[in-house]
Design goal:
There is one protein chain. This protein has about 850 residues and is an alpha/beta fold. Helix content is about 30%, strand content about 20%. The protein is built from 26 helices and 28 strands. Strands 18, 19, 20, 21, 22, 25, 26, 27 and 28 form a 9-stranded mixed β-sheet that branches. α3 crosses α6 and α18 packs across α19. The longest helix is centred in the middle third of the chain and has 18 residues.
């Protein structure tokens, strides 16, 4: 795995490598609310086969992290797929993939738990194992290797990864992970081997062990949990860099009764269960207090279907309006959108609006059992734009069973109707996804369109929707083909995944690095017949996932398939009679709804901010250790969240998107430590004792960021950014710099200081810039015994010199030496 690697001199050198990757914050750890335990009995690493910012947006990861770490004797840490630039470093220097929390190699854990959310992350699973020094094939592992367990929606067809995963959890993970942890604790105390542990795992409900069950034993998914008994995550980890969804997420319901025939999630996560509104409200308040986020997202497969959605939203907005907390409903059906919901969402900040009509004609909406009309959509669009939203996104699906040209025309016609309903009030974006038949759905037997046919239909629609106010986006047809191949694949597809990985396939769902040509080579090498997997299947022939029982009866799925072909709808069982899908037993397993005891607080009529005189406080803080790799925006976000969690009454900007009034001196480069940073924050009334406020702020900041001072500014104080005179720096040269080089650098410094000008050229944003840096250097000294350079550089609005300019153009350090040099900003000089 790590042949021809170049050893690093020290752990410090390994840390400095992060300065050479695109987003160092992906690999730092040390976030607020992350957990490190000393000597737990059982160690889990939760492995997410995608980037940090994608994985940290996944609620399931946060839930399992919370559940495991609530056990005194068990520990959960995290590891994410490294981006290619970081992977190259790991391979070059022989560094193993490690966890974020303790930087422990993942091979040193008892269990590695993969979350399988998307089929196009399968090559990343193989890559993470290989980078961790773990044989990808389960048959090649010994007692010395950790157990590899996987769960998530993709586990409902475990066949493609069966050669690589020791055990799959089928269904929800909260209770299962506790049972697995207890089993591992007992197994370690008894010194059991791998085979014995797998035998015990196979006895846990919902656990499929390929080496023992062999694809023939039917594994029934675990019974769904009562959400009110599992109010996790209790202390959500706050990402260091901006995640895809950077907000408090409260799951208000799980499962769905709508019965959309293409939707795997709506089928496999049944029955429908709501979390009590009072519990959801309490969870939101606690999570805001623990994180400092400024937005709450109410999560379910269809948020508008939650039985108490309006009173819950009204209560949440009344609870948190003063803190300018926004509210988002990420999954709304068009017919569930009401004026009350729109008014509540817009009270603080207009979050994005996305609606999913899915199909363009009434025929197709009946076929997929969507249950809404064009009139529902147009009414909702008019409400959204009337409430002053400026954009709306519509999701449509192409390639559904029975789709004809008139149905494509229907998508275009409906998009134009929406644009007319917008009446030039904003932008309409149409997103076209490609239908992929998923296991355990009524459409699991359907044909998937070829790449050529998908692209033809995409082009047809693009030509019909050409307008500067109507943006059209579409999913790569080649990615959709691979998704279908992997989602309906059998164990032979495992060979294809391994072949694609060996050719260099990574992050196959990311367009900028997707290599379809390598997949084509792998398909040819393994002899996979793509058309055979994507063709229409008979309901009588066996399917690779027949050994997985998600609770739905085969008779129900076949009946729904036939009703789709006939254009017949199936009513929502919450409002109609049971249609015998097979999930509920109406004793222990049934739909659960929130207790109807949630009473919203009265709205504050005519509410407006108290007219007071605002006060500005100046904060001094440091960023050292891992925090030096945070960008300016990431550092600002961390400080803002800590301010939100403090007792300071923050002042906010006006308008539709209010933000706390915070300003910073200047941006310190990524990788540079600083012992003196400043920020000014405006509050609505004077704060308490500075020492108390400092303590509050530091308790909510990531490791390496620490507030060292807080003081009120006099009335009329100037802007912070205009008060900066300059900065003092300290450069710690690499240890391997020879004495002769130090002497040459000392002479170069003396020569530089004796000159009136020193012009350099550098590239900035693709342009060549010429600048005389000599006027900006106040002092520059070399300490040869300590291999240290100190300097003071002036700063002005017109320009400045940077430490890297001195290192490259005066000290003449190479690119690698610049990377390994430690730069510290020791002072920010204010006037």
């Amino acid at each position: 795995m790590m042949n021809n690697s170049h050893p690093l001199a020290s752990a410090a050198d390994a840390a400095e490598l992060l300065a050479g990757v695109e987003k160092p914050g992906r690999y730092l750890g040390a976030e607020v609310n992350s957990v490190i335990k000393e000597n737990p009995e059982v160690r889990f690493v939760l492995a997410f086969p995608d980037t940090y910012e994608v994985g940290m947006s996944h609620l399931g990861l946060q839930i399992l992290y919370s559940v495991i770490n609530d056990l005194d004797w068990a520990a959960a840490e995290r590891s994410f797929a490294p981006w290619p630039d970081r992977e190259a470093q790991l391979r070059l220097y022989g560094l193993p993939l490690a966890s974020l929390e303790s930087e422990r190699p993942i091979a040193d854990f008892d269990v590695i738990g993969f979350s399988l959310q998307y089929e196009l992350s399968y090559t990343n699973v193989i890559n993470m194992l290989e980078l961790g020094g773990i044989p990808p094939s389960r048959k090649d592992r010994s007692d010395a290797h950790p157990l590899i367990i996987a769960g998530g929606p993709c586990a409902f067809n475990p066949a493609p990864l069966a050669a690589f995963i020791d055990a799959f959890v089928i269904g929800e993970g909260e209770e299962a992970i506790m049972e697995i942890a207890e089993l591992m604790r007992d197994a370690k105390n008894k010194s059991l081997g791998r085979r014995e542990i797998l035998s015990l795992l196979a006895e846990i409900d919902g656990v499929y062990v390929p080496s023992l069950h062999g694809g023939k034993t039917v594994i029934k998914k675990r019974r769904g949990i009562d959400l009110n008994r599992w109010p996790h995550p209790r202390r959500p980890i706050v990402p260091l860099i901006q995640a895809i969804h950077d907000r408090v997420v409260v799951e208000i319901a799980r499962g769905c009764t709508r019965g959309c025939r293409f939707c795997q999630a709506g089928m496999v996560w049944r029955p429908y269960r709501e979390r009590d509104a009072a519990v959801a409200r309490s969870m939101a308040a606690e999570a805001l207090c623990m994180t400092g986020h400024d937005e709450i997202s109410l999560l379910s497969l269809s948020s508008g279907d939650y039985s108490l959605i309006q009173p819950l939203m009204q209560s949440l907005m009344n609870d948190h309006h003063d803190g300018k907390i926004a509210l988002a409903l990420p999954s709304l059906r068009v017919e569930s959108l009401s004026e009350v919901l729109i008014e509540e969402i817009k009270r603080t900040r207009k979050t994005s609006f996305t609606l999913a009509p899915e199909a363009g004609t009434e025929k197709m909406r009946r076929s997929i059992n969507k249950g809404n009309t064009a009139e529902d959509l147009l009414r909702s669009v008019d409400q959204v734009f009337s409430a002053d939203w400026k954009s709306i996104k519509l999701y449509f699906m192409i390639g559904l069973p029975g789709e004809e040209e008139e149905d494509l025309d229907g998508i275009a016609d409906l998009a134009w109707q929406v644009l007319r309903a917008a009446r030039r009030r904003g932008q309409v974006t149409v997103s076209l996804s490609t239908f992929v038949p998923k296991p355990h759905t009524p459409f699991q037997w359907a044909v998937q369109l070829s790449v050529e046919e998908v692209e033809s239909r995409q082009n047809y629609l693009r030509k019909k929707m050409q307008n500067r106010h109507l943006a059209v986006k579409w999913h790569d047809a080649r990615m959709s083909m691979l998704e279908g191949l992997l989602s309906r694949g059998d164990e032979k597809i495992g060979d294809l995944i391994l072949s694609a990985h060996r050719r260099g396939c990574r992050f196959d769902g990311w367009g900028e690095i997707f290599r379809f040509d390598l997949w084509e080579e792998a398909i040819k090498e393994t002899g996979i017949d793509v058309d055979e997997y994507l063709r229409e299947h008979s309901v009588l022939e066996p399917l690779p996932w027949d050994n997985i029982d998600c609770g739905l009866s085969r008779a129900f799925l076949v009946a729904e398939k036939d009703k789709a072909a006939a254009g017949e709808e199936t009513p929502d069982c919450r409002h109609d009679e049971c249609y015998a899908c097979g999930v509920c037993d109406f004793q222990e397993i049934q739909n659960i709804f929130s207790k109807k005891e949630e009473t919203p607080l009265p709205a504050k009529a005519g509410w407006k901010e108290e007219l007071i005189r605002e006060k500005i406080y100046r904060i001094r803080f440091i960023k050292t250790g891992p925090a030096r790799f945070l960008s300016h925006l990431e550092l600002a976000a961390a400080l803002t969240r800590s301010l939100r969690r403090s007792s300071l009454a923050l002042a906010f900007t006006e308008g539709f998107h209010p933000h706390p009034k915070i300003s910073f001196a200047t941006a310190t480069p990524v990788g540079m430590a600083s012992l003196c940073e400043y920020a000014d924050v405006t509050v609505r009334h004077p704060a308490g004792e500075p020492a108390d406020i400092i303590g509050e702020l530091n308790s909510a900041l990531p490791s390496g960021v620490e507030v060292t001072g807080l003081r009120p500014l006099p009335f009329g104080a100037g802007q912070l950014s205009r008060s900066v005179f300059g900065f003092s720096y300290e450069i710690n040269l690499p240890e391997n710099i020879q004495a002769s080089r130090l002497g040459a650098m000392t002479e170069a410094i003396a020569h530089f200081l004796g000159r009136e000008s020193h012009t350099i050229t550098r590239l900035a944003k693709g342009k060549t810039i010429t600048r005389d840096i000599r006027p900006f250097v106040e002092s520059l000294e070399m300490n040869t015994s300590r291999k240290k350079v100190t300097m003071t550089l002036r700063h002005s609005q017109q320009g400045a010199a940077r430490p890297i300019d001195i290192m490259e153009h005066v000290l003449k350090l190479s690119d690698e030496e610049v990377l390994m040099a430690g730069v510290v900003k020791t002072d920010t000089i204010l006037v």
